[in-house]
Amino acid sequence: MKRTELKDGLYFYRFRILGLSDTAIEQKCDEILKGAFNESILYREYADQIDKLFKKTGIETADRIDLETIYVNYFALQYGMREWDELNSEVAMRMFPFRRYYNTGSNVRPGHVKLNNFIAKRNDPVWERIYPPNGSRCGCGVEGIMEDEVKNYKLTDMIEIIGPDEGWFGTPKMILEAEYGIKP
After folding, report:
1. Alpha carbon separation from 71 to 10, 78, 134, 160 (Å, rounded)
2. For 124, which of 63, 103, 120, 152 could close a Cys bridge (C-beta 3.0–4.6 Å)?
3. How does pLDDT run across 61-78, given as a tens digit for each residue?
């Protein structure tokens, strides 16, 4: 999936909601965001860098809540990608043949609540559809489960798995590649 195919979702949120229409400015915003993650820059400093860019180019200052959401979502995708890699390492695959989806926090969306404690084998293709984050500011996660731990959970057959929120798709790696051009 390419960025231009996304009518709604992350691309729309990141750029159109900020009122951007200049591709060069969009790319600079992406560079600042990637740099914030790579250099462990706090949100406030990231927002200040975006504000400086906007002032320099004559764009109205971005809404802080929108900027914070963009920052939080990007960091969640990056951490999700690293978690995915860890759970799919050779050692983890031997130790944890199952995966469990779980919710965190008190403000969990109904579709995400339905996935709480969902368990499937580590190689089940369902993980490519529901691996978190599954929406803006999603706090859900996945953990490896040992075979003898599976008996502690009630296994349910989910005929229809609820997918991610609108505009979100696939694993963190898929989203980072389509949205940000990152090829892990």
Report:
1. 12, 11, 16, 32
2. 120
3. 778 888 898 899 899 999
